[in-house]
Amino acid sequence: MNKQEKTQEIEALKSALESRPPTFVLAYRGLSVNQVSALRKKVRATSSRYRVVKNRLALRVIKGTPYEGLAPQFEGPTAIAYSSKDPAALAKALEEFTKENQGLQIKAGLIDGRVVDLQAIKTLASLPSREVLVARLLSVLNGPMVRLVTVMKAPARNLVRALDEIARKKTKSDAAAPDAVPAP
To answer: How far is 160 from 146, CA to CA, in rounded Å?
Structure first.
């Protein structure tokens, strides 16, 4: 790489990490071109990015940033995956891919300014998706309101049922009583 290419690579990496997205550091070894293409496709499906980085350039970029805690992870063939939307979806995609392909390993990550280890990433990957969590939260929040409405409607409902029963009994008693025959 010449100096101009290195500068371009550093600027591209800086701009990618500038907004401090949740990022995972990956070690890849022995992946075929088809496997890397499949990995990129999986990562893109989660609205995330996958990028192979040069360790020296990456170390320059992360110096003095919250990513500096990841510096020991930049050894050997290294790539990063980062997501501006849902880190759990990216962690899940990476975890699924590592189960199928032994050539990729998740080393560590940075989420909300904290360095996390492989175990924390696996825990994050096991969480339900954001949509499922939001649906569960809305269900929990909606429950008390539904019960309140049910309780408030009970007196009116009970009154209608009582009036209906009275009307049925009256109809039955009218049908059961013989018609009075007028006396001559």
So the answer is: 21
User: What gap in Å lies between CA 47 and CA 27, rounded to an integer?
Assistant: 21
> Sign of dihedral through CA atoms 32, 33, 34, 36?
positive
Residue 23 identity: T
3-class DSSP state for residue 78? Answer: strand
Supply 14's token pair.
């800086």
For residue 132, pLDDT over 90 is answered with no
Give residue for tokens 């969480």: 127
Of residues 53, 27, 18, the one with CA closest to residue 106: 27
Chain segment 83-110, per-residue pLDDT in tens: 888 888 899 999 999 998 888 999 999 9
Q: How far apart are CA 63 and CA 51, in angstroms?
A: 19
For residues 64 and 97, what is the distance between their CA atoms, to the nearest angstrom? 32
Beta bridge partners of 52: 79
pTM, two decimal places: 0.69
